[in-house]
Please model this.
Amino acid sequence: MPEVGIVGYGAYIPRYRIKVESIAGVWGAEAESFKRGLLLYEKSVPAPDQDTITMSVEASRYALKRAGIDGSRIGAAYVGSESHPYAVKPSGTVLSEAIGATPECHTADFEFACKAGTEAMYICYAQVMAGLIEYGLGVGADTSQGAPGDALEYSASAGAAAFIFGTNNILARVEETYTYMTDTPDFWRREHQFYPQHAGRFTGEPAYFRHTLGAAKGIMKKAGMTVDDFDYAVFHQPNGKFPTAAGKRLGFPEEKIKTGLLTPWLGNTYSGSSPLGLTAILDEANPGDRILMVSFGSGAGSDAFIFNVQERLLEVRDLAPTTRPQLDENKIYLDYGRYAKFRGKILRNPK
Amino acid sequence: MKIRSPRYNREIPQRYRLEAAKDVEGRIYFPPRVSYPGGEKAEPIRLSNRGKVITYTVIHVAPAEYSDLTPYPVGIIELDDGARITAQIADVDPAKVHIGMRVKVEFRLLRAEGEEGLLCYGYKVVPE
Amino acid sequence: MREVAVIGVGIQKWGELWNRSIRDLFVESASKAMTDAGVDHIDSMYIGCMSSGLFAAQEHLASVLADYLGVTPAAAARVETACASSSLAMRLGWMEVASGLSDIVLIGGVEKMTDVTGEEATFALASAADTEYEGYNGVTFPGLYAMMARAHMDRYGTTLEQLSQVAVKNHANGALNPDAQYPFKVTLEQVMNSTMVAEPLRLLHCSPITDGAAVVILCPADRAGEFLKDRPRVVVTGSGHATDTIALHSREDITWLKATEVAAKRAYDMAGVGPGDIDFAEVHDCFTIAEIIVTEALGFFERGQGGPAAERGDTAREGSRPVNTSGGLKSKGHPVGATGAAQIIEVTRQLWGEAGDRQLPNPRRGLAQNMGGSGGSTLVHILERR
Model:
């Protein structure tokens, strides 16, 4: 079997933000409870001219820059999202066209709540491994919506992460993969519904923790590794509290978790969540470092990857914007009124 | 007026990838043409994705398709290869836009044809 | 070529004419013009209209208008160069008479703009720019001129006060024109505090949305005496037409209107005159920056000096080079397809001595400049009293 890994990666985070206080103030909620209880301070908001497709394109262009390849060499491009702009018509066709991957390119849109992004990554990895394609592009991106006033409104945010898998010039080699999946009705959105429904506290222990911890333990067992074998770990981050708790329960010290923990200031980018955390780690990691990544998608399941960082990463890291500066700099804050307008939450006359 | 599929589809290479053409004397044509003045041959190129603002305005009264965005800046951008395009300047406080401002091209949703029609993508620029 | 004279003009008071359809507007002005000329038939007609389709859902306009004017089976054509459409009609009518093909030719223009919403009108007007590479990217018509204004201010130091002074001057003229849509004066403060449209242009830097029609009757100069009675003979001595790139961003110099420079040169050469020989002009002030650049491109002032000239009052009625004595597009109104013909009417009336309270003292030679889009087409006509 050939060695396969990430050969290029890119992150894209919109510039707009809304603070937890701005949302809580509208609904008569206590901002402090979200900050203390869930470690949520603010979240990214897509501009009215941004969606899963536009963010996927930008993240993918950054990934191509780091990979140093032309878009025409991408043999498969998959976008994982629960907010594909079209119900019917792939996000992947627009992405592939924009990066110049057409016409010899497989594409499909994936949906698995928040783990659609790692599904896209896994399929690319598998196709490269099988020798079917030279390069595969897997993207996790979302512009998710929480119902106004719902707890999800404080976290549902926007961002995209793109990864190109290949066999040449690997930045982070895939050492192991693993999946843990069951049918668990913790969170869903029916066809034609605008906002999702969730099962309250049932989303915690029987859903997030069972699958995330199951996948993490499963991949470590499969690889014959322990927590001590890892320099970084990143988990799906619906809020700041869950991944922190998951890391603690697995025995990861805080410093191995914090690099990839973006949610307190980014919010939950759904399909982009753990993938964006991974980009933040790749922005900092050193050759030889080992990274554990575990996604989680409601419904429910977790994909796990073990990456081993290669020398090549240092050469290409600065060829495209890194993740933390996108998160921390050039922010434009919205009040709730503009946020509601941006997100189409205001009832209007049809044009 | 709604943009329909045939019209939209023809412009995809230019709008998505900034495909242009350059003749032997170095003149850039954007969009590329069916033929060139004087029968010149022109090679396909892609425009640079960075440039600077040559002039700009901030639109306060817009056609229906763009009226949700007002007030929004629009500028004439001279890309680093010398080609000029007209583009919205996104993600910026309109009061901070100025002649000479460095910008980069980003892929954006330009307009949605109602609740049921096409989503129309293309280029805008943002502060570099 | 035969020399061509203007023998009759017709126009109504322009404005938001809710009870007038596009046919009504045209027939009203055309009937006035035919009565004014004293003609009972026409050989052919050319009508400028930018977009009867988008504004009034009516194409095949020439036949509609010939029918309702009652002149069928006269030859009729609707012609279009956006906001310069009826100046193109003027040029084609002039060519037809000059060539000897016809004797009595009606030229004019019409636009019915208020049957659609403001947003729809903005869209229709924007289609005079490059739809795919300007309009698609959200730039509006005022936006294009605003970008010219910004570049002109940046390069030449043109000021907002100078841009505003053009509106003050044109409204002062329009206040004396009974046909004007907005026949009232405005102050510099009112202009500079009006609603923002496309920075730095505010509402009172922009011409309005207008319903209206304007019609002129042409005939060979050697037959003009049959119709003119005591009126002096006014003849067309120069006609120039030029184009430029459709997109503003494709122009070498965004602060310049090349098509106006070239069309003016062609008209001057034909008339055997230069800018210094023009007593007064009607120019295309769709936005006040346009008047400033046009007065430079016509050669009235040096490049970059249009602003200071406006501020000094050079272009006022009492100034050395009166511009837009009618009130211009700004005060008189801008039913886009009709604007060029209305400019010909104002120049003719001034030369006939029939301009009422805004009459200039004994002018002999006037110029009309009318452009389409952001300057993608321009027509210039020179008329002289004989």
